């Protein structure tokens, strides 16, 4: 309320950085603006028994505008509370209230946040007691903020809340997750990465998710979502998306694309005193964002430019000219914004009829000039979207992610990639809370906001490449057309049958159940803790029962010709049993401790042992199934720091994955004794590891009840799923997992959502082993209940 000598006027008082603005409720009355530099002090008016401006005496002592604004604002926040009369329902029960700021482009609005068992409210200090509320939201947790994305049914727009402490932010988020039933938690970067790699989300969607996770928001121009330039051809009449020359090198930042300019920048960088930085401007800043959006958000540009538009020749006049300046300009290194790959082309057109000035040639600044290959703005955006999703970009987008969100963002990798910006642009580059002088603090924050900010780092290891379909040019090999179509049709049919089987994995039907051991079954080929191997025919029942030693068997397999069974034992040996001759044919004594797992591929035997080694053996005999002793030569030995409990070969047989008793997963090239990648991904013993059918990922399960997906190319842990109970064994197709747990149930997992989509009662005790045929049409499980169960998916 404004009190004069003869009258009173109600309205809103707004405290700005350089002035105080009073806006009367009566629209007929004028708005009053008082410059802070003209204020000698603010008098306190006591009314109805309380003093609303008790800080007035302190303001005279502060003597600077910043302190004055802060004191008035904090006083107003302290003396008010959320007006509960604004609740949508009288039955709502408030659970928490705190002070926060709602962030919008170039403006932060202080107010009160309140959460009830139904809604989340924000009540701003200005225009009090007006309010907004949200009841169906997705929430993203930022450094000291919370971004609220409203559903289509909500009347309010998305809001970005900034808190004064992470404690209050975390407490509010707790209540959101507790009381709002429709709250949808944000996925992790690793989860989105897996979805993107598998083609379940587009390049555009993935980049939006990464920007969101890195605290980039359209409500904050200083941290606006950043997208890459992907096209480099803006002069041709036709855009060729099959020609690599049409695209920008995504492995380099904008500043490193021009070799001559880069040399000049590096020379300056070497001669520069601390702190070193290569680029004097950033790739994303409020000025750059509004450079692109001036035609649809002129008010923001006027606010940023003190009421004026930029000079006409420096406006966003042409896509081609802008790209050329980004390549050649000494201080222009900007990337793009999401709008270039969206569907709304209004930012390219002067639909508001703005007077944006005249260029030196005399022409008025109107619509943005488009490349010759675009017929109109909508066609331009459509081709930009096609370019972003095309094969070339999909194969190289991970390189740009490494620069902006990943391991090349900071440190020595950033220096090597010529990707070093001013220290102030990085998260944690300056501790503003330690600056006590308010003027210096405001100046520092202003510099950071205006210069631009680097996104929060999401990845610290190389980002894996996207899995892209392989295109075959059949016309280039006419001989293929003369081939019999039966083989090609058979392969297509097999793949389709596999997909159908996995899509129906939640409809497993029990075919038969057999109890063929007197004690615990350990493997679907029916190895036994009393060292007995039992061979069973589904049609004819038990066929053979063979005992090899006085210690239990650990693993067994049948060779491709179905004539030899190979078993490993805890007595350190590997046994070969001839089905044709009905006897033990040979014994391989190759380890100093228990042999835990074996694998056979291309006449080679792979053995894993608790003596911390994996060995590869080559069969010397021409026919291993002959009634003769067989010699095995040791081809390679892979040493580990702990006992090896499991192993798996990639489908091509070139890579080896091993899991140890201490939870370490190691990836090997079988041609080299040195590991390609190694990481501790479990806190206990790894029970099983397996490559995906395309060899891009490795899934492992362990004693810690976790399912972990690791990228083969980079060694990056890209997904960790916490199960309710320990999972002992599994089969998977790269997206869906069928696992057996300690309770005896089979679980069908969707790795993309990290959820169990179906549970199937199976054994009365832990499921200890699982086998699936190549067509994925038959599954066999074994458990501690001594049962062998055969399953088939129902179609």
TrEMBL record:
Alphabetically ordered keywords of this record: WD repeat
Annotated ranges, domain BEACH: 181-466
CDD domains cross-referenced by the UniProt entry: Beach, WD40
WD repeats: 588-618, 637-678, 679-720, 760-795
One Pfam family it belongs to: PH_FAN
Statement: the UniProt record of this protein carries the keyword tRNA processing: no
Protein name (record): Neutral sphingomyelinase (N-SMase) activation associated factor
Organism of this sequence: Cyprinus carpio (Common carp)
Taxonomic lineage: Eukaryota, Metazoa, Chordata, Craniata, Vertebrata
